[in-house]
Task: structure prediction
Amino acid sequence: MELRHLRYFLAVAETSNFTKAAEQLGIGQPPLSQQIKALEQELDVELFRRSARGAELTQAGKVFADEARRVLDDAQRAARAAQRAARGETGHLRVGFTGTAAFNEHVSGLIRRFRERYPEAELALHEAASGVLLDLLEAGQLDVGIIRPVRRVADALLQSDWREEPMLVALPVAHRLASKTRIALADLADEPFVQVPRVAGGTLFDDIVAACAAAGFQPQLAQPAPQMASAVTLVAAGLGISIVPKSITQVRVRGVVYRPLLAHGLRARLAIASRRDDPSSVVRNFLELA
Result:
C-alpha cells in the first residue's frame, strides 16, 4: 500500500463517483477502478458498494477513510517538518560566548534576531573563556563561538572577525587620574594592572601589552582576573587599574569609574568561530544573520 492508493481511495470517497474522482486525479477511470480493487484485495475488505448511481462507502470504508486522512495528514506534517529542518528553521543550536561578549549589544542583538526569525529552533547558550569555547567547538559540543580572537585555531575551525569596540580605563573612584575626562596610555606606566590573562582573554591581552609597549612601557601585571567583570570588582577593591571593553561599563560596581583613552588605536575585538565543515542549516542561518 502506498500513499497514492490512499489519495485515490479518498478521492472516490469524497466524490462518491469513480468517473469524477478520476477526472479530479487526472487519471483514467479504468486504472482508478483497478487500483481501488487491488486495495480492497490487499485489505481483504469491501470499501465501496458500487451501483449505477456511483460508489457508496461501506462501514469498513468509512473507518478506513478516517484513518487514511490521518495518515496523509501525518505524512504532510512529516514532509513540512523535514523541509523546515532542511531550511534551518528548526533544530538545535549551541552558542558559546565569552563573559565580556554577554555585555556587547551586537551579541544580544544577534541572539534576539535569531530567536525572532527562527522561533522553532532550540537555542542553548554557554559562557566560558575563548580558549575553552574553541575546545568545545572542536569537540563538537558547541556549534558557534563568539570569542575574543586567538592567533591560531585548529584546522577544523573557522574564525572570522566580527565586531570591535573602544577600550576604556577602569579606575578606583579616588584614583589620581579619575578626575580627567580622557587619559593617555603613558599616564598608566606606573600603575598596577588587573587584567584577564592571555590564556583566558585571547589576543585582547596581547593587544593591551602591545599598546602599552608602543606608549613606551611594559604594564605592571599585579593581579590576574578570571573574567573581565571580576577585574572591575578587583579595581574597586583598590588592587589596580584595568583596561576593559566599553561594553563592560554596564557592570555597575560602586567605587569604579570608566575613562576613555586618548587616541591609541586600541580596540576590543570579537570574532565568530564555527566548525569548517559543519553541514547544519541552523548554523548557517545563525552565521548569515551575524
